[in-house]
Amino acid sequence: MYDVAIIGGGIIGCSIARELSSYRLKVCVLEKASDVGCGTSKANSAIVHAGYDASPGSLKAKLNLEGNSLYTKVCKELSIPFQRVGSIVVAFDEKEVPDLNVLYEKGMKNKTPGMRIIAGEELRALEPNLAQQAVAALYAKTAGIICPFTLTIALAENACTNGVDFFFDTEVKAVYAMRPGEPRFVLKTNRALFETKYIVNAAGVQADAISQMAGGDSFFLTPRKGEYCILDKDQRNLVTTVIFQVPTKMGKGILVAPTIDGNLLIGPNAHNIEDKQDTRITAEGLAEIIAGAKKSIPSFAPQKTITSFAGLRAVPPMGDFLINADTRVKGLIHAAGIESPGLSAAPAVAKMVREILAVEGLKCKKKTNFNPYRPPLIRFNELSPDEQNKLVKRDPSYGRVICRCETITEGEIIASIRRPLGARDLDGVKRRTRAGMGRCQRGFCSPRVMEILARELKIPLNQVTKHGGTSYLLAANTKTPELKEEKGGGKNGSL
């Protein structure tokens, strides 16, 4: 019997798992994918927002500001990079300047620090490559950039080392209340039954389906698709801050931003769709975001795009996060409708969910042995030549470069597999080490990474997958050293 079962292993679910792992509780995370962070958490803008955009008094406003303030501490504890590069919202003519004033007033009501409206030489000094049409901008110095899947993995690792159980490829199919009116449930999954006192519903765009499954509050989450492009690292120096355009009712608009790993990110567009599995990119969508990004930074080179992707945001019906105890089912807690600024708010969302659980009757006693720190991954390409030489002498596997684009070594890949909740497929290695994220997009390193995975996991090479399940990378053998004689005297190798 678990005290808490968290449905969903994205940034919200893993933040909650880590928060609860600091208490004397038995907690599990049920994730239908093969790894954490496989939904919205791996396909967003990777921005920690300053907090001026949300409506004053909303949960978004409150939790964005609280979450932003926690990021420096959280990232230091988890040994992951985070940079407060600041952000600007640009007005491209005088008619848009009043919109900046509205955002500024929102920010003041939300108590967002470090804001001011800039123009002229100050704006040009900050962003020399900004379009000439730009006349003014709202500058917010506390905005930052982060890698969302690195963060999600780090949260999960730390939660795991502090006692949280993670179950992957585990999809919840039904929810049964064992004692109606009391917090006690049986969760039926495709793999096993799980008993739990409390449920935290952090299932992303499927959170409405989980609530319906449990007989809980009725709400519908609209999937909103956003498409992005990642550009080569030689485009990174075009911008200093995260550049937004004046937002619309569909969102914060198409941004141009540096990434924490030295690339340039453009996107997203925003289109409400019906299919909650549709993460396809389209030619029309890519053309839309390129045109939008050109409005801010005309000089960037679209032909330098190295990859593109799309993600879904769970748009709540009332425009605000749904974080509450269910009114119908005792023990069911929702962390739903977490669209932007969900990444920014995640640490604060976790604390709020823990507080709700306590109000609902969960006894939360602090652990004396909770360890908030996560040992860092070795990044070979960030070491000095002397440090690299010493490391290779100690472990020669760090001297064998597997991914040349990102200078990722065999030692790093092995470490990513052997860590708590380590990589089990090609995408898992990619998200943990960046092997395959460079210019060639793993066109050259994939076979070597597959060999390492097969060796470390002690599985046949043809059982290595891209992202778990049946996503096998090898269909059949094309050569075999053993040729079988056929009755007709001929010889054929197996296909």
How would you describe the overall organization of this protein?
With 495 residues, the protein is α+β, with helices and mostly antiparallel strands. The chain folds into three domains: 1-82 and 144-221 and 316-376, FAD/NAD(P)-binding domain (3-Layer(bba) Sandwich), CATH 3.50.50; 87-141 and 223-311, 2-Layer Sandwich (D-Amino Acid Oxidase, Chain A, domain 2), CATH 3.30.9; 380-463, Arc Repressor Mutant, subunit A (Orthogonal Bundle). 29% of the residues lie in helices and 22% in strands. It has twelve helices and 24 strands. The strands form six sheets. Strands 1, 2, 9, 10, 11, 12, 19 and 20 form an eight-stranded mixed β-sheet that branches. Strand 1, helix 1 and strand 2 (27-30) form a beta-alpha-beta unit. Helix 1 packs parallel to helix 5, helix 1 (11-20) crosses helix 8 and helix 2 (59-78) crosses helix 8 (342-359). The chain is globular.
CATH topology of the largest domain: FAD/NAD(P)-binding domain
Average predicted confidence as pLDDT: 95
The number of helical elements comes to: 12
Secondary structural class: alpha+beta
Q: What is the CATH top level name of the largest domain?
A: Alpha Beta
Q: What's the CATH architecture of the largest domain?
A: 3-Layer(bba) Sandwich
Number of domains: 3
Query: Overall 3D geometry?
Result: globular
CATH superfamily membership of the largest domain, which one?
FAD/NAD(P)-binding domain
Report the radius of gyration as a whole number of Å: 24 Å
In which range does the helix fraction lie?
25-40%
Q: Major sheet: size, sense and barrel closure?
A: 8 strands, mixed
Unreliable spans are 483-495
Kindly estimate the percentage of residues that lie in beta strands according to DSSP: 15-25%
